Automatic annotation (TrEMBL):
All copies of domain Protein kinase, residue ranges: 1-198
Positions of transmembrane segments: none
One Pfam match: PK_Tyr_Ser-Thr
Source superkingdom: Eukaryota
Keyword Transferase: yes
Taxonomic source organism: Gigaspora rosea
Record flagged with keyword Kinase: yes
Name of the protein in question: Kinase-like domain-containing protein
Amino acid sequence: KTFSDSYFQKIYGLTQDPKTNSFMFVMEFAIHGDLHNYLLKNLDILSWKEKLDILLLIARNLKELHDKDIIHCDFHSGNILINHGDPKINVKICDFGTSKLADVSSDYNEVYGVISYIAPEVFKHGHYTKKSDIYSLGMIIWEVMSGYKPFYGREHDVTLILDILDGLRPNFIEGIPKEINDLMKKCWENDPLKRPTA
């Protein structure tokens, strides 16, 4: 599958550390780092329009991925890079190490990723789908609007997983457009079939 260079982080090559023999990718540099750190540094100066622009770019990139029948499986703010664009910022998705083709089933049901972004059905069955990426997108929307990672201040442990399975979601944010709150709620639906598509 091929992608537009403007949506995904470029990989230039592979190198090996002569001391440890570990391999490393040589990848495109993102001047602003990942989305979470960008929000930490800039949340107070970002307008609603700029936040919405970031979210639209993220959704566009996720749609491109899903249109190619690829599921990210570890979609969170640490895997979204922010760079200078022309004339605005540019958003790129990275870290496809756990991604899979939508039509390929795996023999194992391993759960991986950041707990607060993982869809409830993944905890139950270990199966990642496009709809589990959409759940993660809902958490990313909340993070862009609030400036905090979902469930900040809580231990990311079995208790949090059980609470998520029982329907726990982050609190809605005062003062943001109703349409954004409604979209987050749809992305967080317990029933994956009720979630929107990218």
